[in-house]
């Protein structure tokens, strides 16, 4: 559901970000232990909320509205899916490869055939878990942010209930593997490409870090979630699917590294997180981004603009993990100039839905998921020019993204 826009969102955003850009360094304060969300920006924004500054009132009203809606999202772990005759344990995560469709030339529809870029609505059915995972991740993130900024323990309690159902309760928690993600009927019961779906758990890790000081969260919750992510991390690194996805040369490979690095840091394995982030320059940036900032492998897809910005999002995660580990991927550049910043500069003007990437056709494109990327770039590079890329976006689109105070 799209909320009605409120006035002057872009002006409000600029005020908040400029204040973060020009604020002195923080020392001796209790910063949140977030991984991707900026702890410093979170803290400064919270101080402005507590001071009841006029410029943050509209943003907080929007966040509270989102949180109140998230309070009504049902707790639906993987065990909430209908029982089927697949023979698979109900706690196993299952999803359908989104671009695979029944073969119209086959009486049974099997084997499914690939139609790249055309999403099969069957993938969003309640038979599969991807919709539940997405709804949980969005609700937990929104509720955790709302708790952090308001102190309302009801938000923390509801977010904690979702997390416990998915990762802590032995009766409902998801098996920490993706053997049956993005299945392709008639071909297999699961594919390595399904690993990209748990990128949705990265903001959940940030949300849990925010929830840790709340009354609703317990030490047992922290122990059990760390155990779950440790087991899942082990599966990612050792399974056949995980090794195959790690070898991918496009956004799938970037997101694999982003997940490993973020989950490792979440469970306090800084050595592994630093190792993965430290390899990202030569392993991912230099192999996927050309000196002019373009990404040819993503441009070759049927939804090139989505793939380009989606890949940039993964690079943002890796760079954020690098920050926590004393590495600077934001400013890393190869000898020939390949860098995250070059890719942001090249593609930023095409965040405007009416302005497709050079050499590609106009197509449906939702810029909303990538708004935080450019807000973060404005902070990292101390350059409000990155906010200019948001100017063509309509107020209704911007009004859907309330977490800018966390960047």
Automatic annotation (TrEMBL):
Domain Alginate lyase residues, every copy: 79-346
Keywords of the record, alphabetical order, are:
Lyase, Signal
- Signal peptide positions are 1-27
From the UniProt record, which GO molecular function terms apply?
Answer: lyase activity
- Magnesium keyword on record: no
Q: InterPro entries annotated for this entry?
A: Alginate_lyase_dom, Chondroitin_lyas
Q: Any idea what this protein is called? A: Alginate lyase family protein
Q: Which organism is it from?
A: Pseudodesulfovibrio methanolicus
């Amino acid at each position: 559901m799209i909320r009605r826009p409120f006035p002057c969102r872009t002006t409000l955003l600029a005020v908040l970000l400029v204040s973060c850009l020009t604020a002195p360094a923080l020392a001796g304060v209790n910063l949140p232990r977030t991984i991707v969300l900026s702890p410093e920006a979170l803290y400064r924004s919270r101080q402005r909320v507590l001071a009841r500054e006029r410029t943050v009132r509209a943003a907080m009203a929007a966040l509270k509205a989102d949180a109140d809606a998230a309070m009504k999202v049902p707790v639906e772990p993987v065990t909430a899916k209908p029982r089927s005759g697949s023979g698979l344990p109900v706690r196993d995560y299952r999803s359908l490869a989104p671009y695979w469709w029944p073969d119209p030339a086959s009486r049974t529809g099997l084997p499914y055939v690939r139609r790249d870029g055309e999403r099969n609505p069957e993938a969003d059915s309640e038979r599969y878990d991807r919709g539940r995972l997405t709804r949980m991740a969005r609700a937990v993130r929104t509720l955790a942010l709302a708790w952090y900024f308001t102190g309302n323990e009801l938000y923390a309690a509801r977010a904690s209930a979702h997390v416990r159902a998915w990762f802590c309760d032995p009766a409902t928690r998801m098996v920490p593997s993706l053997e049956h993600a993005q299945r392709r009927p008639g071909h297999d019961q699961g594919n390595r490409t399904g690993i990209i779906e748990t990128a949705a758990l990265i903001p959940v890790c940030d949300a849990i870090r925010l929830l840790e000081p709340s009354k609703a969260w317990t030490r047992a919750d922290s122990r059990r979630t760390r155990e779950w992510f440790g087991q899942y991390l082990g599966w990612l690194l050792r399974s056949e699917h995980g090794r195959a996805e790690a070898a991918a040369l496009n956004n799938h490979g970037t997101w694999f590294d982003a997940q490993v690095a973020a989950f490792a840091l979440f469970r306090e394995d800084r050595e592994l997180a630093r190792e993965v982030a430290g390899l990202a320059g030569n392993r991912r940036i230099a192999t996927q981004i050309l000196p002019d900032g373009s990404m040819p492998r993503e441009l070759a897809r049927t939804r090139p603009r989505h793939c380009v910005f989606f890949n940039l999002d993964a690079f943002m995660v890796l760079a954020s993990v690098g920050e926590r580990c004393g590495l600077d991927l934001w400013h890393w550049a190869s000898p020939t100039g390949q860098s995250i910043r070059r890719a942001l500069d090249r593609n930023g003007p095409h965040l405007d839905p009416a302005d497709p990437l050079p050499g590609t056709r106009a197509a449906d494109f939702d810029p909303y998921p990538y708004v935080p990327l450019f807000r973060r770039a404005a902070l990292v590079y101390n350059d409000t020019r990155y906010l200019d890329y948001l100017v063509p976006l309509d107020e209704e689109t911007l009004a859907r993204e309330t977490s800018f105070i966390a960047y």
